[in-house]
Structure formats: C-alpha cells, structure tokens
Specification:
Transmembrane segments: 6-21, 28-48
Number of helices: 2
Keywords: Membrane, Transmembrane, Transmembrane helix
Order of helices and strands: HH
Largest sheet: none
Helix content: over 70%
Distance between the termini: 13 Å
Radius of gyration: 12 Å
Oligomer: single chain
Shape: elongated
C-alpha cells in the first residue's frame, strides 16, 4: 500500500512537471489532471500488488 502511494505521488509530480513545461504556466486544470493520473496510477499499482 505504501509503495502504491509513493508511486502515485511520483506520477503526480512527473505529470505536473511535464504539463508545466509544455504549457509554460501552472493552471488548476494541470494540477487536477495530474492528480487524476496519479490516483489512477496508484490504484493500478495497488491492484498489481494485490494480484502478484
């Protein structure tokens, strides 16, 4: 579970940095989309951890 949270946070930070460099500014839309991607990544990692 802890690894899934760490993985989700890393995905969130990476996606946010990618969006900010792409759009040259930080917007609420970028933060929310990064948060959604981070949560989906964490849930996927958690499910993979449960299966294997």
């Amino acid at each position: 579970m802890v690894t899934a949270v760490i993985f989700g946070f890393a995905i969130f930070c990476g996606w946010l940095v990618f969006d900010v460099t792409k759009h040259k500014k930080l917007t609420l839309e970028n933060v929310i989309s990064s948060l959604v991607v981070g949560v989906v990544g964490a849930l996927g990692w958690w499910l993979l951890d449960l299966i294997f």
